[in-house]
């Protein structure tokens, strides 16, 4: 049985190794967690379970924060899908390959920036979801520059 979670206490990023390797499972503290905080974590954990391990290889190509990506509303599978779509676009494009290369680089920067800031601050789920919205907006801008349509980013939701 893991250590008890004290009401109102924050779980520091370093302490996640004691309880679970999956960061989202940290919110499953039981009755000591507030309602909205706990329910958000449980939904996210259910949605990303089973996909995290499979997509680590694809995620490593994007940035080195594969664990932090699971803290966001964006799932690892959707990140990998977006990355692969942009890379496929890159290969198909002859004349505008430089434009797509720039967009791909911006995608990498956006992913690492959002994931790193969430990790450093150690924020709660509600704030992380707000950051995920910012993340989606940045991805939308990257996709437009790469010549992709918005419909190809629906999987982010």
TrEMBL record:
Annotated stretches, region: Disordered: 1-68
Low complexity bias (residue ranges): 28-44
Top-rank lineage group of the source organism: Eukaryota
Basic and acidic residues bias (residue ranges): 53-68
Protein name: Uncharacterized protein
Species name: Pleurodeles waltl
């Amino acid at each position: 049985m893991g250590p008890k979670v004290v009401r109102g206490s924050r779980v520091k990023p370093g302490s996640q190794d004691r309880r679970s390797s999956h960061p989202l499972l940290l919110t499953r503290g039981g009755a000591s967690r507030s309602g909205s905080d706990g329910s958000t974590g449980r939904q996210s954990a259910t949605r990303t379970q089973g996909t995290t391990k499979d997509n680590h290889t694809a995620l490593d190509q994007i940035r080195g924060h594969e664990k932090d990506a699971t803290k966001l509303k964006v799932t690892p599978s959707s990140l990998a899908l977006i990355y692969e779509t942009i890379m496929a676009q890159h290969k198909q494009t002859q004349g505008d390959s430089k434009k797509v290369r720039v967009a791909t680089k911006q995608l990498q920067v956006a992913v690492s920036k959002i994931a790193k800031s969430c990790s450093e601050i150690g924020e709660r789920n509600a704030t992380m979801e707000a950051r995920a919205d910012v993340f989606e907006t940045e991805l939308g801008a990257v996709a437009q520059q790469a010549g992709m349509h918005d419909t190809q980013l629906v999987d982010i939701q």
